[in-house]
Design goal:
It is built from eight helices and twelve strands. The chain has 278 residues and is of the alpha/beta class. A hairpin with a 3-residue loop joins strand 7 (179-185) and strand 8. Helix 1 crosses helix 6, helix 6 (199-213) packs parallel to helix 7 and helix 7 runs parallel beside helix 8. Mean pLDDT is 84; it is low at 5-12 and 113-121.
């Protein structure tokens, strides 16, 4: 496993736009400029075949495309990715992925025509039986060494990590309009942060960045600035992450999947408290 290249730093102010606004406060009116989070259609294209169009912040898109591919099971390992290229155009952004023949055969078998995905996690599932068959199990993306997340992630450590997160959310600080997903390591705090207008996208970007660095590890903690829905838990399970902490509530499906998959799940991580659900 290679270490992350550098500790977390506040990233350059990209992924946003400056727009003219009129601010009304009682009888007062001001004409100002405001920073707004950037949202664009991003198409993921595998070996020339378009698979999905996502609404995302056009930042760290290589990480996003890889993380989405891994967390959705389109790729089973980094070795199946041959090349990746981001192409910006007048209509949006296209991310071209070249994948191995085996991965492309799997992709064609599972191909789903999606547009403007809602993040429900059930798109392309046509029966209850198919849904249950699609539930993930822990992947081989992490190191073979096992770790006991109960031994390292206390409520105090989780609270400390969440308190350290806001200063590292550069886009959120300037726009107030995006989610974050962060990677915590025991005894080190937050090691990496990714931001996006969508909570699922932010987590995919984090998973992709970690996979590219070979830094996914079972003792790591994924922190998310959202609820812990089934799809968010599913992405962590497929990535082999040992623990997940959400600032908001989990869902019943998320809890059930975490318990059956061995993922330690925390919700309502606020101030100095957290609720452990799995």
């Amino acid at each position: 496993m290679s270490a992350l290249a550098d500790p977390v730093v506040v990233r350059p102010s990209q992924g946003m736009a400056r727009v003219a606004v009129t601010r009304h406060a009682g009888a007062n009116t001001q004409h100002l400029a405001d920073q707004v989070i950037d949202e664009q259609p991003v198409a993921l294209v595998y070996n020339g075949v378009s698979h999905v169009v996502m609404m995302a912040t056009p930042l760290d898109l290589e990480d996003f495309a890889l993380g989405f591919s891994l967390s959705e099971g389109l790729l089973t390992s980094l070795d199946e990715l041959r090349d990746i290229e981001v192409q910006a155009g007048s209509l949006g952004v296209s991310v071209q992925l070249q994948v191995s023949p085996r991965a492309f055969d799997r992709f064609k078998d599972r191909r789903r025509q999606l547009a403007g995905r809602t993040g429900c996690g059930l798109c392309g599932i046509d029966s209850l039986e198919s849904f249950h068959e699609s539930l993930p199990t822990a992947s081989s993306l992490v190191r073979t060494r096992q770790a006991d997340p109960k031994a390292v992630w206390t409520t105090e450590a989780i609270s400390h990590a969440f308190r350290a997160l806001p200063p590292l959310q550069a886009l959120q600080a300037q726009t107030g309009g995006c989610h974050a997903a962060a990677w915590g390591l025991p005894g080190q705090g937050i090691a990496l942060v990714r931001e996006d207008v969508g909570r699922h996208n932010a987590l995919d970007k984090l998973i992709g960045a970690l996979a590219r660095e070979g830094a996914l590890a079972p003792e790591g903690l994924a922190l998310v600035s959202s609820r812990a829905s089934h799809e968010m838990v599913s992405k962590c399970v497929r990535a082999g992450i040992g623990a997940m902490a959400a600032i908001s509530a989990p869902t019943t499906l998320g809890i059930d999947l975490a318990r059956r998959s061995g993922l330690r799940l925390f919700g309502f991580c606020r101030n100095d408290s957290a609720v452990e659900y799995a």
